[in-house]
Write the structure tokens for this entry.
Amino acid sequence: TGKEKWPRGDEKVWKAGMRSLDKDVESITKSFVNHVQTSLARQAHNLDDLGAYQAAALSVRDNLLVNWNKTQLQYMRKSPKRAYYLSLEFLMGRTLDNALLNLGLKDEYKDGVRLLGFNIEDILEQERDAALGNGGLGRLAACYLDSSASQELPLWGYGLRYKYGIFKQLISPEGNQLEAPDPWLEHQNPWELPRLDVAYEVRFYGRAERLGDGSGRALWTGGQEVLAIAYDVMIPGYNTATTNNLRLWESKPKRGFDLNSFNAGNYEGALSRFVVLFADFFAYRTFGKELRLKQQYFWTAASLSDILRRFKNLNKPMSEFPEFVAIQLNDTHPTLAIPELMRILIDEEDLHWDAAWKIVTNTFFYTNHTVLPEALEKWSVPLVEHVLPRHMQIIYDIVGPIYFCTLIILHLTCQLDRTCFSSKASVSFIYARLCALTMIKTVAVEKKFPGDRERLARMSLIEEGQPKQVRMAHLACVGSRKVNGVAELHSDLVRTTILKDFVEFEGISKFGNVTNGITPRRWLDQCNPELSALITKALKLEKSVWLKDLTKLEGLLPFAENKAFRKEWAGIKQRNKERLAHYIETTLGLTINTKALFDVQIKRLHEYKRQTLNILGVIHRYLTLKNMTPAQRKKVNNRVVFFAGKAAPGYYIAKLTIRLIVNVARTINADPDTRDYLTLYFLPDYSVSLAEVLIPASDISQHISTAGTEASGTSNMKFCLNGGLLLGTVDGANIEIAEEVGESNVFFFGHLTPAVEDLRYQHLYHHIPIEKKCPALAHVLNQVSLGLFGDNEVYEPLLNTIRQGDYYLLSDDFDSYIAALAMVDEAYSDTEEWIKKSIRTTAKMGKFSSDRAINEYAESYWNIEATPITPHS
Ligand code: T68
């Protein structure tokens, strides 16, 4: 407001000393050289590209910090309701180019570094990807950060500062995936700001004792305490001063550590093991489940402490917490935040259970990212009890009455298990609440559905078994204000399958949908600058206008009819193919035929994503080509097939699929009969940066999951935004993309979701041998079995997943898949028509901007508002 008292010293002297934003080449080169001299202690004669990257990054960071400070100060002064995005993964990729774009300083830096003897492209190439995630879920979080800052929304991200990103993927000569660590912080990370002053204590293990006064409060003592230290990453909005924050936690041993609680021999090992955090499932194998649980708690507890501290600065009563705070749970990974907030409110803030529960259930929002049963998170009760004894009590207090009711109904009341209810006080507390009918309406469940025992068991937060397990999706659901899936079909499946009972009980209005989105800044303007420039020229709009309102792309539709425009459009696709070919040539030494249709499937390796269907389709094409005369072959479209993606290190079948792809590639790329018409590449070590080169070069991309298994997919959106067409199943966001761009511009195939259950049943109980059911596929499988691609017998376990059981329905969809590929060939032969399809596709992708998605969350979920940052604060 400018009216507040200056905090200390002479305001004028302070203000004179403040840095302002760089705006011209001169101030940029000055800042660059200053950083070379002081931050890097180097000089012009010993500065290489890496050093130049560091200097450029540091000077850009200074600019980001100017806006970051302004933003945080204004948030503090205006105290708007804020949203917090809790995600265990943020797949940010590279930062420098995005920061330059968002600050509007790309040209100035390009010119500046040229004056100093560097090329901006070479400098940008020096940056390592920040790969703190596995796939779509982590990249979505990164897109949402970009969009929330660009839409001027007060949103912070909270995550973990892993010392290692997802493993680096190497491919052995036999075609096996090997995993190497990714120590991404090896060189200094200029994009983070250590906040050594922001630290919280987090406790594990120990004892939790109820106070026994019927209040439900408890004392949690002993165990191990570690410190969470904050590292802040600046998140600049595009074309706005808003610069939000991503706070990542690092763990540090607490001084004055309780040595008694520790086996001295284990001290070193146990501590350093906790400090080393991994992004991927690798962690399970190396460090075990306990580490993952500790990571989840460490991160949620530190984040909640931080959020509460900020709320307390407002001097508002605790009951108003949900009016100032919305917390989004990115999948179930941060679900421990629910019992943790209950613990803080009850044990530390002295609130009654009901008041605390009301706050909690008005604060949290839960996004589900999968309905695959095997992917739903569950934690063993004994493990949670060991690591987080107080939280286990609270979970039982949430579920207790459900559990009691179930037991009462089943006449098993006497079999109360000591491990569940460790003291008399616990039992009496739960019983008191049961009698008061104030628990999560469990008695009401019984009232509403009298005698429906199966329903009670299904809805319980605790799954019976050896050991018992906490169902995190149920906990996230009952503890949240709203729940959503990530595409229309997926949200429907959430409502009708995994959370059906909760929908019937709590009402449908709690269960919504927010279809995923992608940021057009990174996924069009940055990765495809030529196309972006052409669009700007055609639309006759400022780039900043359509990049922030992507529905403006519709203005491209008439240009599909313009021959000169189509030529420009196709020329850009061609140059993007050459750029990709150049990249592959320089990194892998392979020569790519750029006069071919580029067919791309890039995503995590998983059976449900059916990379196997794709590679079997490639083999089918190869066998067909082999059977043709040279004259016949000449009529066939040339095709280059690209795969990229990582398999979880312990996922045997997925790794075998990689091996098959690599060895099929070896054989067919060397075959003089066919290699002019069909080649195949597995590009190792898929990353955000590799995606940025691949996506703009693709003609067709494959999104071919078994119907009902891919929640949304987001790369499908990226390809279509860049004028690539989609070959896919009627699944996830493919459906909504087709609704937008028109079915005539999408190549759909395969069975639909409602058929899947029956088809699986048939495989199990009315098995038809594959030779009879799908001879074309049987032939392909036989050729692999016979050793056409070497490795006799090695692939049998993979092939047998199809021959027996065929859970992902490859034999049901193979024929229609091959037919769809043929339709692609036919369509591609009509070049002009193909380019029209490409233009129309891009034109209709406006819906899939993550700006749209984040605004839906802001309005319909979090109830937060844009808070523009005014220049003079
Ligand atoms: C993906 N999920 C969905 N999970 O598969 C994809 N899981 O359809 C969707 O588009 C995307 O989320 C965004 O909504 C994931 O990426 C994980 O990466 C993951 C990580 C750890 C544990 C479980």
In short: The domain at 19-315 is CATH 3.40.50.2000 (Rossmann fold).
